[in-house]
Write a structure and sequence with these properties.
Order of helices and strands: EHEEEHEHEEH
CATH superfamily: Gcn5-related N-acetyltransferase (GNAT)
Strand content: 25-35%
Radius of gyration: 16 Å
Number of helices: 4
Strand order of the largest sheet: 1-2-3-4-5-7-6
Distance between the termini: 20 Å
Structural class: alpha+beta
CATH topology: Aminopeptidase
Bound molecules: coenzyme A
Shape: globular
Helix content: 25-40%
Number of domains: 1
Number of strands: 7
CATH class: Alpha Beta
Length: 178
């Protein structure tokens, strides 16, 4: 059976003008910068839509980044800057929250990160949690704190490989269209 949702790269054809997740900064980003930053190669936004529609009910934005290795407790014998993917933003429309769709979006962030890592070295995925409560949500997936930056979190690519192979690969269908 086909999954009821798809994830695709944002375009002007998508309807996001009424998107509201409860965090105005994340709504404004999608409305004003999602398409533009994707076109300009600053940060790529992917949107979650009910299959067969262009109605955006969730999104995430990714770009290349790096972390100072001295900020990572487990890293030894490494260059000064370690390559990462940055999850700049992730949000779900408020009326779709609490149904597990946030988890599905995040697993697709992991999958995009794993895909990039097959072509160029990516040590991990990083993000800035918007608040303490959301930080707990990320930590449930295995994210850890960067030294001296309690809301700045990371997860190693090796952990993502294991989770995809052992848990998600079988149970979570791939919703990505492009
Ligand atoms: C964060 C977000 C994407 C999670 O999506 P979601 O679909 O609501 O979450 P899921 O259904 O996958 O997971 C639900 C679980 O996570 C917990 N959870 C979800 N959002 C949470 C939050 N902001 N704080 C604490 N716990 C949260 C729920 O309590 C629930 O726990 P339970 O399964 O034990 O009941 C969504 O809540 C959202 O868009 N929030 C507003 C934007 C935002 O804060 N984005 C993060 C920016 S760093």
């Amino acid at each position: 059976m086909e999954a009821p949702f798809v994830i695709e790269r944002i375009s002007k054809l998508h309807n996001f003008k009424d998107f509201s997740c409860g965090e105005p900064s994340l709504d404004n980003y999608l409305r004003n910068w999602g398409v533009r930053n994707t076109q300009n190669d600053f940060s790529t936004t992917y949107v979650l839509c009910p299959r067969g529609t262009k109605e955006v009910i969730g999104y995430y934005s990714l770009c290349a980044s790096s972390i100072r290795s001295c900020r990572l407790p487990e890293v030894k014998s490494a260059p000064r800057n370690i390559p990462t993917v940055l999850l700049g933003r992730i949000a779900l429309r408020h009326d779709f929250r609490g149904q597990g769709l946030g988890e599905i979006l995040l697993i697709h962030v992991f999958r995009e990160t794993l895909l990039v890592s097959t072509k160029i070295s990516v040590w991990g995925l990083e993000l800035d949690a918007i608040n303490e409560s959301v930080k707990q949500w990320y930590q449930n997936f295995g994210f850890m704190e960067i030294i001296d930056e309690p809301l700045h979190l990371y997860i190693e690519i090796e952990t993502l490989r294991q989770l995809e192979a052992d848990i998600w690969g079988e149970s979570i269908p791939d919703l990505r269209l492009t």
